[in-house]
Amino acid sequence: MSLLALTLACRCVFQLFYSFFKSLVGKDVVVELKNDLSICGTLHSVDQYLNIKLTDISVTDPEKYPHMLSVKNCFIRGSVVRYVQLPADEVDTQLLQDAARKEAMQQKQ
Amino acid sequence: MFRFQSLDEDCTLEEEDEGLVEEEDEIDQFNDDTFGAGAINDDWQEEHKRLAELDERDELAAGLSLGGGGTLGGEPDLGGTQHSSSSSSSSRLPPSAGRLPLPSSLPPLGFSSSSSGLPPPDVEDRPGDGDLAESLARLILEADPAIAGVGAAERPGPPPGPGLSGLHGLDQPRVLQQTSSIPHQHPHHPQLPPGPSASGLPPGPPPSSMLSYQQQQHLMRRGTAPMGQMNSHSIWENSMGFGPVSVTPGLVTHMEDSPLMSIIKEVGLPKRPPQGRNDEGRDLSERVPPPRSSSPVIGSPPVRAVPIGTPPKQPMSHALNHQIHHPTAVHVRAPVQHRYPTPFPERLSPNTLLNIANSPLCRGPFPPRVGPVLSQIQRAQLLNSQVAGFPRGGPGPPLLPGGGGFRPFFGGPPPPHGHRMGPPPPHGPPNHTPPIRHNTTHLHPQHRRMLTQRMQSRGGDRGRTGGDRRSRDPYSNLMTQKEKEWVTKIQMMQLQSTDPYLDDYYYQNYYEKMEKRQERERDSSKKEHTTKLITPQVAKVEHTYRPVQFAGSLGKLTVSSVNNPRKMIDAVVTTRTDDEEKREKQVWNKRRQILYTVEKMYSLLLEVQDFEKRFVQTPEEDRDALVEQHKSNTEQLCSSLMEKEWEDRVSDEQCVMIMSVRKGKRLISRLLPFLPSPQATAVVMAIARNLPALAKKDKQDQVLCWLVEPVSTVIQSLSSSSLTDLLQELQGSEGQLATVLHNKFGVTLLYLILSEGERMQSSDPNCQLMDDNRWTELVFSVTRELLSVPSSALSPPLFTPPNLLSLFSRYVDRQRLELLQDKLQMSALSR
């Protein structure tokens, strides 16, 4: 049951971004990892740890990483992501601000 | 210390019938030793030599035995397992005081050599002194489930009686499997008090057990030809083959000592037997982890202990499901209680649905995750969407168009085909394998629609190629379906929430807004609104990678990496005088103060905004409290705008202050609809009054135009006198109007006011607008100003209300009207 407690703790911190990324499922994003690898693909799914599954990927920087040539889909662990580049028109910044405010309020309580 | 005795009995058992006699002898001898008078003196050195020779030939046997020993069930259990195993094995033995605790006390080597009559299980006591380390190593290695082999899996055999299991009360289901197979081979003994061990053992039927052991041995060897040599290789083999031999707890700890482990590391796996042996035909690569079993040992207490980590069984999972189902789901829009449908198809249980739904999907690139909350509805939907087939550019997908499954939660009328979810046809897995299967049931219907459109446009051509890739999945079947579900449930339980609207704020609202937007567009344009495919434009820059180098440098240069990040900012320290610093600090403090105020107001505002939604959701009793809270929130909001001293007047200063910050402007624009009318009016007045200042401050942000909409709403609700007042405020002091006209927002505001006045006049003949001359005068001055201001200074408004022309036509003559028209480009009335 400690597993459950731990996961519940994770949940309240990440709900905002999880919710945010969920709304981007199906959109094209570019994920830059901490090892400097940049992967462009369609966001297939995300989970509460912000692990990302991308489909139809391509490495954006031309083939400095040739070992990725044959890979079509990938799963990226959330902790290794540095940036996620999003299409700007898919994001409602006002709503995001509100969500952040709500999250802050919630955490305060 | 354990007794490590290679078991001649073992090897003999593996013999064909001729060896049987010898086995009998050996067994008998063992019996003597274990249960008889005492230790028989044996030459352990000889034995050791023999064994050492065998060792080299016994690699395969070792492997086999490792396999056999693999089901030991892990080190922690080692002692116990061994106990039980030994117990089980020894159960057949007559109670023996001969459980010689010390390896040095030799069960005679003579055992191995001579006794053939001992039942297999008796072969526990073996002298193994010299090779203690080796045998230990082997033991541990065998005990390691990682090295587990086939053997255990195939040994059902009648385990020997309760034996020590009763003593130690250990339930080792897997191990117990082993015990029968390992009866003899215990290089180690538990250091049992002879008495209990002895007493606990009813003499089992040696022959039968022996036979069964033999069978097991044959099984283990896959029916390959029996060993040539009785006494030699089989010793090791069998000794390897046992698993959970009786090892005392002391022994266990001993084994876990570091020196032993180091020995083990050095020794490594026991040497493989030479290839020439017949029984090596076994293909070791075909070992699979033994299935978990709970085969009870006859006479032993029933197996209740389930291996750690076993997923819950069916009933529990059901209970879990129920827990999950009934609280409202995360990904479903907050369902309203009274609209909760009863869609679940009674014929199919949730688990069945899940299985059906999951089975065709197991081969996908991403094994589908079960819907985040496994509500019954969603499972039905899952089944619908998945089983009914994924579009491959084929017939329109029955993917719940219009969000059939979600309709109940729309707040709209119950869906016409909501009962679709009724009996979903559980036909077999679709015969095509779509490239990527999306589990979309948890998504907002709007989102799903967009996704499917996108998938259709992209996926049609790719659909056919993906099938073959997935036909062979080397990683399938590692986990049973139940296990998968169990893990998924743990994950999903974390995502449950009682208030999806709160926890999933962004997502829910985003798609609500999108829907509203689409509806609005559809209404206005009356055409099908297709989703735009939005792809980020990534610039393709061609460059080859060249590591950083300088000519003439030696070695590598420091390149920035994660652990050695590059310098991002050049922070330059500028010296400032004290005064300046103080001033800057003041400014900054003030700004911070404003921001703080704004944030506080925002939180209030958000609460107020959500009031409606929450109101609908709360039960009757709590509603009053909610209303109270709402009122107080609103009041607080208002008061924050008010003057400190005069509680009923809107503070200009405060308003302006707030609006000097971009966030504040946004705040005000959202706040206005919620303010009571007089206050709203006052705020708008304040805005008009201070427009020049605001305009100046807004130069950077340019966001005043956010205010247009709420302000226009307010204006439209104004009375004529207020309107006139407003216009007056706008004009304010000298030259204000000019500034107003400079500013886009100002112009728009002006137009709005004028247009409203016109509307009032034209619609309501009794309108009081013309009662005093103020309005007329004001309009005159406006027109004067408009005409005099150079065109370049006039900024285009956001929009031009159509009735301005008619307004001006009332007040100005034709000539001027035309001039005005040109200037303001009002020719198209329908703009």
From TrEMBL, chain A:
Secretion signal span: 1-26
> Which UniProt keywords are present, listed alphabetically?
mRNA processing, mRNA splicing, Nucleus, Ribonucleoprotein, RNA-binding, Signal, Spliceosome
Q: Which GO terms describe its cellular component?
A: catalytic step 2 spliceosome; Lsm1-7-Pat1 complex; P-body; precatalytic spliceosome; U4/U6 x U5 tri-snRNP complex; U6 snRNP
Indicate where this protein resides in the cell: Nucleus
Annotated Sm domain residues: 16-90
Select a single GO molecular function from the record's annotations and give it: RNA binding
Instruction: List the Pfam families hit by this protein, alphabetically.
Output: LSM (PF01423)
| Primary location recorded for the protein, binned into one broad class | nucleus
Please give the biological process terms from Gene Ontology that the record holds. Answer: mRNA splicing, via spliceosome
According to the record's subunit comment, the protein's assembly and interactions are:
Component of the precatalytic spliceosome (spliceosome B complex). Component of the U4/U6-U5 tri-snRNP complex, a building block of the precatalytic spliceosome (spliceosome B complex). The U4/U6-U5 tri-snRNP complex is composed of the U4, U6 and U5 snRNAs and at least PRPF3, PRPF4, PRPF6, PRPF8, PRPF31, SNRNP200, TXNL4A, SNRNP40, SNRPB, SNRPD1, SNRPD2, SNRPD3, SNRPE, SNRPF, SNRPG, DDX23, CD2BP2, PPIH, SNU13, EFTUD2, SART1 and USP39, plus LSM2, LSM3, LSM4, LSM5, LSM6, LSM7 and LSM8.
The family annotation for this protein states: Belongs to the snRNP Sm proteins family.
Q: What this chain does, per the record? A: Plays a role in pre-mRNA splicing as component of the U4/U6-U5 tri-snRNP complex that is involved in spliceosome assembly, and as component of the precatalytic spliceosome (spliceosome B complex). The heptameric LSM2-8 complex binds specifically to the 3'-terminal U-tract of U6 snRNA. Binds specifically to the 3'-terminal U-tract of U6 snRNA.
- PANTHER family, alphabetically? SNRNP CORE PROTEIN FAMILY MEMBER, U6 SNRNA-ASSOCIATED SM-LIKE PROTEIN LSM2
The protein in question is named U6 snRNA-associated Sm-like protein LSm2
The species this protein was found in: Acanthochromis polyacanthus (spiny chromis)
Ranked from the top, the taxonomy reads: Eukaryota, Metazoa, Chordata, Craniata, Vertebrata
